[in-house]
Amino acid sequence: MMECADDLDRIMAVMEAAFDPAFGEAWSRRQVEDAMLIGNCHYLLVDSRGHPPPPGIPAAGFSLSRCSLDEEELLLFAVHPGFRRKGLGRNMLFRLTEAARARGIRRLMLEMRRGNPAEALYRAFGFRPVGERKNYYRSGSGEAIDAITFAYTIE
Ligand SMILES: CC(C)(COP(=O)(O)OP(=O)(O)OC[C@H]1O[C@@H](n2cnc3c(N)ncnc32)[C@H](O)[C@@H]1OP(=O)(O)O)[C@@H](O)C(=O)NCCC(=O)NCCS
User: Fold this and answer.
1) Confidence band of 30 (pLDDT split at 50, 70, 90)
2) Which of 14, 90, 117, 132 has the most neighbouring CB atoms within 10 Å?
3) Could you tell me which CATH class the domain 5-110 is placed in?
């Protein structure tokens, strides 16, 4: 559950700036709220220094993930364009891994459209490809794009 309604605003502010509309990957406010209500969902926020933002301070990045038994799926992961390539994405993956370990999670999973530059970050962190779905996504211009599933084992 959202601990603070303000956090939903902070997530949506990053969401609206971070995702390229050409791929339709951003979630609506309602979708994020609903994910929170279903349960087993966790989110984290970072400010521009990689810390949890104090009340009233905008987030520079966020993640949203969902647990199922000992696996956790990364549903959304984004850093505001104004704060990229400063290590915030890597910082969030470390924090997510620590939080997931504390929840008893053994494996992080995520699905990414082929060609997303985020792949370099995921691979450098230790995620490995474990599957793909051909033509799973469709861009705004109608182009079919494969989905690649990555997994990271928490030691
Ligand atoms: C993916 C994303 C979260 C990365 O955030 P970030 O804070 O810029 O990432 P970091 O600064 O921690 O990057 C760490 C390393 O990952 C790699 N990397 C990150 N972004 C990269 C890019 N666009 N191109 C190539 N390598 C990249 C680099 O090796 C980088 O290290 P370096 O800057 O020292 O070269 C951000 O680009 C984003 O929000 N993208 C849009 C939303 C999205 O597509 N999310 C992923 C959905 S699967």
Assistant:
1) very high
2) 14
3) alpha beta
- Straight-line distance from the first to the last Cα atom of the chain, in angstroms, rounded to the nearest whole number: 28
Is any atom of ligand 1 closer than 6 Å to the C-beta of 60?
A: no
**Residue 1: pLDDT above 50?**
no
Cα dihedral across residues 87, 30, 100, 123: positive or negative: negative
Q: Which two tokens stand for residue 140?
A: 């705004």
Identify the top-confidence range among 39-48, 82-91, 132-141: 82-91
Residue nearest (by alpha carbon) to ligand 1 atom 1 = 118
Question: For residues 107 and 152, is the Cβ–Cβ distance under 8 A?
Answer: yes
Q: Is the pLDDT of residue 73 over 60?
A: yes
DSSP string, 48-72: TTSSPPPTTSPPSEEEEEEEETTEE
Q: Whose CA is nearest to atom 32 of ligand 1?
A: 85
Among residues 26, 32, 25, the alpha carbon closest in space to that of 137 is found at 25
